[in-house]
Amino acid sequence: MTEPPPAPAETAPARSRGCGIWRQFRRHRGAMLGLLVLAAILLFAGLGPLVWRLDPGFVDIRARNQGFGAAHPLGTDQLGRDLLARLMAGGRVTLAVGLAAMAVALGFGSLVGIAAGWSRRLDAPLMRLTELFLALPLLPLLLLMVMLFREPLARAMGPAGGSFLLIVAAIGATSWMQTARILRGEVLALKEREFILAAVSTGTPTRRMILRHVVPNVVSPMLVAATLGIAAAIVTESALSFLGLGFPPDFPTWGRLLYDAVDQMQLYPWRVVLPGLLISLTVLSVNYVGDGLRDAMDPRQRHR
Fold first, then answer.
1. How far apart are CA 159 and CA 167, in angstroms?
2. Which residues are paired to 76 by β-bridges?
3. Which positions fall inside the ABC transmembrane type-1 domain (predicted)?
4. Cα separation, 251 vs 156, whole angstroms
């Protein structure tokens, strides 16, 4: 009787490591709860419009300022627009901004951090640049960027496209510094490892060494930084929209819904509570998922 062939040796360590990370992640109750809440919010924003098909921009003056009901489960705003549809549409925009801004910040921060950690010649100037951005007042800088570039981008790409590109670029350009500092420390520690020293001694090209040996070993802190970056980007976009400097009025985001509801907060408090609750739940769930990933990817935690 022949025995089944063994699993390939190169896939077994990766599979066992992935199973260990998942087991450790499941032990983190806050991370699992955050993952469930985040999945529910993603389904609400992503698949909700397939079920609730009302146009979020449709104005019905006769139905304005309605409370909870069958026709409008979460009521309507001062122009008669359905709040449930606007919350779903605003969630798509807010989450898209968070993901895109995180990608920009993660890409630039990873490039700066890996270059600074690997090259002694680039370390000092790149870290001084990072410290300069850390010392800048970020909110006034964001407001200045929005005021300077909003109109030119709106003329070139339209109000919605220009606002999206501007906000993503502004948030990404002002939130990469922590990722760069974290990855620089990781790369400095990796340079002293035996397999890196062996690769250097055999004359491996720098580009190949970084792609094959450095980048795979800093994926864990990059994932953690990505999750935390999404939360920070969502909060920043909501703050800009709440100040009236984000997307145009007919382009809903959760922050814009807060801004529109402030004037009538005492009469219709749920218009402020609902988008504020969604922002808070999203940020908290993403932070808990990031904490769970950080603990699960720490070898010292997995062996406890």
1. 12
2. 82
3. 91-290
4. 18
